[in-house]
Every structure is written in C-alpha cells, then in structure tokens.
Amino acid sequence: MDSLDRAIIEATQAGLPLVPEPFAAVAAKVGASSEEVMARMQSMQEQGIIRRIGAVPNHYVLGFRGNGMSVWDVPDERIQACGEMIGALDFVSHAYHRPRHPPLWNYNLFAMVHGKDRDEVMKKVDRIAKLLGTDDRGHEVLF
Prior knowledge:
The chain is of the alpha+beta class. It has helices at residues 3-12, 22-30, 34-46, 79-87, 118-132; strands spanning 68-72, 92-97, 109-113, 139-142.
C-alpha cells in the first residue's frame, strides 16, 4: 500500500460522495484519474484491505429523523441467518453481532432502523419481529 492508496482510503472512509460521478470526485481530491481510483479500490478490496465499497448517506439530511438502534435476543446458533435477514431490509443500514452481558443485557444482534419518525421506526421493528418469528426472544429500540 502506497501513499495514493492511503489517500484514497482517507478520502472514502466516510463513504463515497453522493454525486453523479463519485469516483471522479475522489480522484480530483487525491490527484489521480477516476480509472486509477477505481482500479486501486478494487485491488484493495480483493486484498481484503477494504471490505466493501459504497455510499454512506446522511439519513438526517434525507429526512430520516426517527432512527433507532434495535437490539434483539436471538438464538446464538441463528445469529448469522437472522443478521443476514435483517441486514437485507432496505430500511436497515447495518446489522451486527455483539456479545451478551447477562443478566443485564441479553441482546446479541443490533440493527439500525431508519424512519421519518419514531412511529415509522416502531412499525418497521414490528416487521422485523414478524420476519424473525420464534427467533425473536425479545427486543428493544434505543432512540
């Protein structure tokens, strides 16, 4: 990894810019061509330096003000499947496994749910609960 790779990582660590040509914007910032930026990002992804390439929208700017972190108690042996189901939903920006801390904290799956307001978020959390079915052994939403 050289100085240009580092500059590309620094320029994109908060996500790609939300513009019609995001790689051109990054290229202008780091002093390279958009083709060079794309090739280097693909190479870094193949090497495991970058896990994924994507835009990170500012949900508040887009009008999503009721964002809530939903926390779920799901069977440990189902954590991967449940996380993938939840993470595939278009109103969830990220879902991830976290260790439990019983008896105070029994939740092992976290998912950020986005909505225009709290009521919309709670309706979406209800959808997740239905999707999980019996795998949902309890949940809360932290606003």
